[in-house]
């Protein structure tokens, strides 16, 4: 059974960098799927952050592109998200996902991790 | 960005009912429209992709239709485990955008 598990600090200070990792079990990161991140601020709609292929090709939300870096660690079957210069508006539940394609639906989600931006 | 509007925002229904949820896009997304279910405390689950394709393992009582800007998710013969939040997503244009969700509650 394929599973995704997010990890990272639950509290980040304003202006600092939010760093999250998603561990993949039961599947190889080098498969034909894309791997992504989606977040949901409290009381708001889900927001697509971006996705990455195991080759390193990335697709970012234009509104976040200047602050995002996504990467893959094929040796450890993980992928990561860095979001810099965070503000309170970045407080959200962050989910990692497996996507059918670069523009496809997310057919597997992690349980999510709550990240609060506060001093 | 393409805005996705779902209606209703919530509804009450009984086991065995037929439920219809609509999603409207602010511009055409052709058929690149997906539906997800999220039960309390659980990760979202893909139900339908590309308007009408049932994700593997999803019961056949779920179905989707539409094209362009107007789409529908139908749940026939509502079951107890279907009480959840449903939301749509367009993947035609970047950034992919989501509706706010429809909460299906027990009447």
What order do the helices and strands come in, and which of them pair?
The complex is a heterodimer of chains A (119) and B (107).
Chain A lengths: L2 E5 L3 E2 L5 E8 L8 E7 L6 E6 L5 E3 L7 E6 L4 E6 L8 E8 L6 E4 L3 E5 L2
Parallel strand pairs in A: 2-11
Antiparallel strand pairs in A: 1-3, 3-8, 4-5, 4-9, 5-6, 7-8, 9-10, 9-11
Chain B lengths: L3 E4 L2 E4 L5 E7 L7 E6 L6 E5 L3 E2 L7 E6 L2 E6 L9 E6 L6 E2 L3 E5 L1
Parallel strand pairs in B: 2-11
Antiparallel strand pairs in B: 1-3, 3-8, 4-5, 4-9, 5-6, 7-8, 9-10, 9-11
Key phrases:
heterodimer; A: mainly beta; 11 strands; B: 107 residues
Task: Give a summary of the structure in a few sentences.
The complex is a heterodimer of chains A (119) and B (107). Chain A has 119 residues and is mainly beta.
CA radius of gyration of chain A is 13 Å
* Quaternary structure of the protein: heterodimer
**How many distinct helices of chain B?**
0
Shape, principal axes of CA atoms of chain A: globular
Approximate strand percentage of chain A: over 45%
Number of strand elements of chain B: 11
SS content category of chain B: mainly beta
Low-confidence stretches of chain A: none
Low-confidence stretches of chain B: none
Q: How many strands, what sense, and barrel or not for the largest sheet of chain A?
A: 7 strands, mixed
Q: Biggest interface in this structure?
A: A-B, 21 and 25 residues
Alpha plus pi helix count of chain A: 0
CA(first)-CA(last) distance of chain B? 36 Å
Structural class of chain A: mainly beta
């Amino acid at each position: 059974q394929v599973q995704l598990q997010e990890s990272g600090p639950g509290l980040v200070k304003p202006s600092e960098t939010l760093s999250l990792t998603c561990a993949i079990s039961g599947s190889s990161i080098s498969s034909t799927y894309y791997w992504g991140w989606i977040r949901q601020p409290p009381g708001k709609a889900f927001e697509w952050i971006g996705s990455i292929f195991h080759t390193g090709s990335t697709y970012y939300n234009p509104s976040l592109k200047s602050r995002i870096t996504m990467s893959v660690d094929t040796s450890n079957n993980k992928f990561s998200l860095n979001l810099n210069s965070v503000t309170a508006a970045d407080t959200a539940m962050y989910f990692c996902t497996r996507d059918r394609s670069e523009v496809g639906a997310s057919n597997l989600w992690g349980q999510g991790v709550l990240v609060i931006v506060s001093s | 960005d393409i805005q996705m509007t779902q209606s209703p925002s919530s509804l009450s229904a009984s086991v065995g009912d037929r439920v219809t949820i609509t999603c409207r896009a602010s511009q055409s997304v052709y058929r690149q429209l997906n539906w997800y279910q999220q039960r309390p405390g659980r990760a979202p689950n893909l139900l339908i992709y590309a308007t009408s394709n049932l994700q593997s393992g999803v019961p056949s009582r779920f179905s989707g239709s539409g094209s362009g800007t107007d789409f529908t998710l139908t749940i026939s013969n509502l079951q107890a485990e279907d009480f959840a939040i449903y939301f749509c997503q367009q993947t035609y244009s970047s950034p992919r955008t989501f509706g706010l969700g429809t909460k299906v509650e027990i009447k």
